[in-house]
Write a structure and sequence with these properties.
The structure holds 2 protein chains of 2 kinds.
Chain A (H helix, E strand, L loop, with lengths): L38 H14 L1 H10 L21 H9 L1 H31 L5 H13 L2 H15 L5 H25 L3 H9 L4 H12 L1 H17 L2 H6 L8 H11 L4 H11 L1 H9 L1 H9 L6
Chain B lengths: L33 H31 E2 L2 H6 L3 E2 L3 H8 L1 H33 L5 H7 L2 H4 L2 H11 L6 H8 L14 H26 L3 H9 L4 H29 L3 H7 L10 H11 L5 H31 L1
Helix pairs in contact in B: 1-14, 3-14, 4-9, 4-11, 7-12, 9-11, 9-12, 11-14, 13-14
Chain lengths: 304, 322
């Protein structure tokens, strides 16, 4: 079901890069045909990465710049006299918004996994009627613009009084992740060996028990990938937050940052410091779970 | 469910001792019966109906009535049929939004694809630090869009932006990137290309991993140059993956709101307004929300999404056959 290829069982993309972790190929490596290490590629790669990541560097640089230096021309390329006043402002004003985002992110993860994992299992191994139609519906669901969903949710929430509620936002954010999650679980769980299930059934395990005790533990990697993306998308969401939660007491960090930009065009160091703090989950995930990220992206169904 | 197949749901299955007939009667999959499947699917089905189908139906209802904020509260809005659709098609913004959407989407995905492919080919050979650098290329994709968008806003700021400072340093005229009608769309497109490169890189890179190294070896033994190898091996064999990458890029770029809204709010005027932005602005971006035309624009976008889904399925089938 997955688009480009199913996520690899180990969640990573190890194929074809045995020495890619940075260890230079020494004489002991079996590099028979290419005796010399391609250092020029490393040099070019460093330059390309630097160009690509310049905006990220710029966020850091501006976040450390003193307020009176922000409007200097030309701008200083290095934070030579770094200040942390921007970060102090973040701690003063944004802690609550960060907490809200954390709550929304975790809520979205739980809702997404609870809804998607059993469904993925059913689609993978139980041959339900209408599986093809359901998969297609999930595919299309991922392509529906968030702005359309936002209007639909708005009109529903107005009546239910769910506007400006954190739980309303959790539900809306989960719609970004659920179709992706079901398709990813299905692709992954299809690869589990049938013999294992037969063995469990012979041992007297019920369908539910097999799912909980055998399938879920074996699917740990796909659960991690799904959770990671669900969290990241909920954390980063702007469209739902800015439409369904615009007057709430508890706003997530994306909306708080947006309001900050609007009100506070003089203090870009504080804005950028907020941006840095808002990016921390992404940075942590990149360091801790890069192989899951790569697996999720190649699973085809990806962020809008 | 009982451990054996004694209580098979519709009684068609025999005991476990006899291997079930393989061909026609596939009553149950290896994971469980169809009734169990329904139970496992139930949360998802309820979820889809409540949080997809119902909001989308409400959205259609919105587009067929004349809704205002007051009508939301009182719950009474006049039924106007297809008037909202006629209205948006006749609106002067519509033509511009379609052109902007086409330019924004077309240029974005073409550039993202070309750059992503170039980088994927570059990273195909492993070299010292290649794994780390490839991971770093994911950063723009992982950052919250609001963060990237505000970074670009400040970099492209007319008076204090680093881009204009760089232009001035080499003696070029500076540009009002975000505030002049001629450049706003260029600016948001640039930022969007930057955002999309990681996605294209990762997918195309994984596609390249599936091309056998033997082919390249054989080609280079036959004396094929790197360029010939790219055009004769890489590109043709990558075609199915490329098609899907481009299609996903198309669908995802069509619905982009965040980056444009944060950088320019679709302006100045409507110069960087796409269809998605138009819909967002009508419904949520002004003091006087106009939900009904916004919903009509949104429903047009859904039709595009549906077409995208069908095309995707077709491409996937074709790929599976080959």
């Amino acid at each position: 079901m997955s688009a480009v290829q199913t996520p690899r069982r180990d969640g990573g993309s190890r194929a074809g890069r045995p020495t890619a972790t940075g260890a230079p190929r020494g004489a002991s490596a079996p590099a028979v045909r290419r005796p010399r290490v391609a250092w020029w590629r490393t040099g070019l790669g460093l330059v390309l990465t630097a160009v690509m990541l310049f905006p990220v560097y710029w966020i850091l640089n501006v976040s450390l710049t003193q307020t009176q230096d922000l409007r200097r021309t030309p701008p200083s390329l290095l934070p030579l006299a770094p200040t942390f006043e921007g970060y102090e402002a973040v701690l003063d004003q944004q802690l609550q918004a960060l907490g809200v985002s954390l709550l929304v992110g975790l809520g979205t993860v739980v809702l997404t996994v609870v809804v998607a994992a059993p469904a993925g299992w059913a689609l993978a191994k139980m041959r339900p009627r209408g599986a093809g139609a359901l998969s297609f519906a999930l595919l299309v669901a991922q392509m529906i613009p968030a702005v359309v969903m936002a209007m639909g949710f708005y009109s529903v929430y107005v009546r239910l009084g769910l506007l400006n509620e954190v739980w309303g936002l959790v539900i809306a954010d989960s719609t970004i992740a659920v179709p992706f999650a079901v398709l990813l679980f299905t692709a992954f769980m299809s690869g589990l060996p049938d013999e294992l299930l037969d063995a469990a059934r012979v041992d007297g395990a019920s369908t539910w028990r097999i799912f909980v005790a055998v399938v879920l533990p074996l699917s740990r990697n796909s659960v991690i990938t799904v959770s990671l993306f669900a969290f990241l998308w909920a954390w980063s969401d702007f469209v739902f937050a800015s439409t369904l939660n615009r007057q709430g007491d508890l706003v997530p960090i994306t909306l708080s940052l947006f309001a900050y930009i609007g009100n506070n065009t003089t203090q870009w160091n504080a804005v950028m410091a907020t941006a840095v703090v808002a990016s921390v989950p992404a940075a942590v995930l990149l360091v801790l779970a890069q192989r899951y990220v790569a697996a999720g992206v190649t699973a085809g169904a990806v962020k809008d | 469910m009982s451990p054996s197949t004694v209580t098979a749901p519709s009684g068609t299955r025999t005991g476990a001792a006899v291997p079930p007939p393989r061909r026609r009667r596939r009553e149950a999959g290896p994971g469980g019966s169809r009734r169990a499947a329904l139970l496992f699917l139930l949360p998802l089905l309820v979820y889809l109906v409540a949080f997809y189908v119902y909001p989308l139906l409400r959205n259609i209802d919105l587009s067929l009535r004349d809704y205002t904020i007051r009508a939301f509260i009182t719950g009474t809005a006049d039924f106007v049929g297809l008037d909202n659709y006629r209205e948006i098609l006749a609106d002067r913004t519509f033509g511009q939004a379609v052109v902007n959407t086409a330019v924004f989407t077309g240029v974005s995905i073409a550039a993202q694809f070309a750059l992503g492919l170039a980088l994927a080919v570059f990273f195909r050979h492993s070299f010292p630090l290649s794994g780390v650098l490839r991971a770093l290329f994911l950063v723009p994709w992982l950052l919250p869009l609001i963060v990237s968008a505000s970074a670009w806003s400040w970099m492209l700021n007319s008076e204090n932006g680093v881009v204009n400072a760089a232009l001035a340093a080499v003696g070029l005229p500076t540009v009002n990137w975000l505030t002049s009608p001629g450049w706003a769309l260029v600016s948001v497109t640039l930022a969007n290309i930057w955002l999309g490169i990681p996605f294209n890189l990762v997918i195309l890179y994984s596609g390249l991993q599936n091309i056998s190294a033997d082919l390249y070896e054989a080609a280079s033994l036959d004396g094929a140059t790197g360029r010939q190898q790219f055009w004769r091996i890489t590109l043709p064999l990558l075609a199915p993956v490329s098609a899907i990458t481009l299609l996903l890029g198309l669908v995802y770029t069509l619905k982009v709101v965040d980056i444009i809204w944060i950088m320019t709010t679709g302006g100045p005027g409507s110069s960087s307004t796409t269809l998605a932005i138009w819909s967002y602005r009508e419904a949520f971006g002004t003091g006087q929300p106009d939900f009904s035309p916004a919903a009509a624009v949104g429903n047009l976008l859904i039709l595009v999404a549906l077409a995208g889904g069908l095309l995707y399925l077709w491409l996937q089938r074709r790929q599976a056959r080959s």
